Amino acid sequence: MTARGARAVREVSHYLGNTPAVCRTSYIDPKVFELFEQGVTVAPVLTRLGEHGEFGRPATQGAVEAAVLDLLDGSGG
Q1: Which residues, including other chains, have CB under 8 Å from residue 1's CB and lie 6 or more apart?
Q2: For 4-45, how does the pLDDT look when each residue is reduced to its tens digit (9 = 90+)?
Q3: Quick one: average pLDDT of 41-70?
Q4: Global pTM?
Q5: Pick from 39, 31, 43: which is nearest to 74 by CA?
Q6: How far, in Å, CA of 32 to CA of 63, rounded?
Q7: What is the three-state SS of 16-52?
Q8: Using an 8 Å Cβ cutoff, are 38 and 23 in contact?
Q9: 47, CA 20 to 30 Å: which among 9, 56, 65, 71?
């Protein structure tokens, strides 16, 4: 795992109140790391949300979650 990946795991673990090891094995699909290493992320969805001033509002959670699921099933983001 890259240093950026390790940092992301530490940040997620902080928000979830678990150790990085628990987050990595129980909450984060390993495919997320594989795709990240290939440069595939949900960044385009986050950018679109930000363009409309929507990012950060509670209603955007569904859009971000849908983008992650699309990323994992290979249908895009």
Answers
A1: 9, 33
A2: 888 888 988 888 889 999 988 888 888 888 888 888 888 888
A3: 72
A4: 0.59
A5: 31
A6: 17
A7: HCCCHHHHHHHHCCHHHHHHHHCCCCCHHHHHHHHHC
A8: no
A9: 9
- Model confidence band, residue 54 (pLDDT cutoffs 50, 70, 90): low
Among all chains, which residue has been given the structure tokens 């928000």?
15
- Residue 22: φ, ψ to 5°: -65, -45
Residue whose entry in the numeric block shows the structure tokens 């859009």: 63
- At residue 40, what are phi and psi to the nearest 5 degrees? -100, 120
Q: Write out the H or E segment, with its range, that includes residue 7.
A: helix 3-16
Helix (H) or strand (E) holding 3, with range, is: helix 3-16
One-letter amino acid at 17 equals G
| DSSP H or E segment with residue 55 | none
